[in-house]
TrEMBL record:
This is DNA polymerase III subunit chi. Pfam families: DNA_pol3_chi. It comes from the Bacteria. GO terms for biological process: DNA replication; positive regulation of DNA-templated DNA replication initiation. It comes from Vibrio renipiscarius. SUPFAM superfamilies: DNA polymerase III chi subunit.
Length: 149
């Protein structure tokens, strides 16, 4: 059964800022990749995808995990592939981390979907729409509140 997990972002959390959010996405991608998952990061656009790729280079050396933008890197990619709405992920991805506001065309293409519920009201409404689409596509849904110190 396919699963979709929505992470709830609190207004006072570090993830409520763009930089904090991207750092959290890097953390999640590394977490899943260390467990052996082939992760696809679906950015809002090319600029966000490139910014995200840069964040992967800013981690401590012992935390580094290979990654590549779609169309770059080895033929079958690394454990973490970064793209955006206009691109198709490689065939061998099991898990998508979605950062795009209206992108759900990948529903049914991944066994696991990670998505986010931002603080801002318009973005929250878009997240509700994505939730409905995942539910209609047959995903098991869960929500997790991001806990921060």
């Amino acid at each position: 059964m396919a699963n979709a997990t929505f992470y709830l972002i609190n207004p006072d959390s570090p993830q409520a800022t763009q930089a904090g959010f991207l750092h959290y996405v890097v953390f999640l991608a590394q977490h899943f990749a260390k467990q052996g998952a082939k992760v696809y990061l679906n950015a809002q656009d090319k600029a966000q995808a490139e910014q995200l790729a840069e964040y992967f280079w800013q981690v401590e050396p012992e935390q580094f995990i290979g990654h590549n933008l779609i169309g770059e890197g080895p033929k079958y990619g690394t454990n973490i592939e970064i793209g955006h709405q206009a691109l198709k992920p490689s065939w061998n991805r099991q898990l998508v981390i979605n950062m795009a506001e209206n992108e759900t065309t990948f529903a049914n293409k991944f066994a696991e979907v990670v998505d986010f519920v931002p603080c801002e009201e318009k973005a929250k409404q878009l997240a509700r729409e994505r939730y409905k689409i995942y539910r209609q596509a047959g995903y098991q849904l869960q929500t997790i509140e991001i806990v921060h110190n």
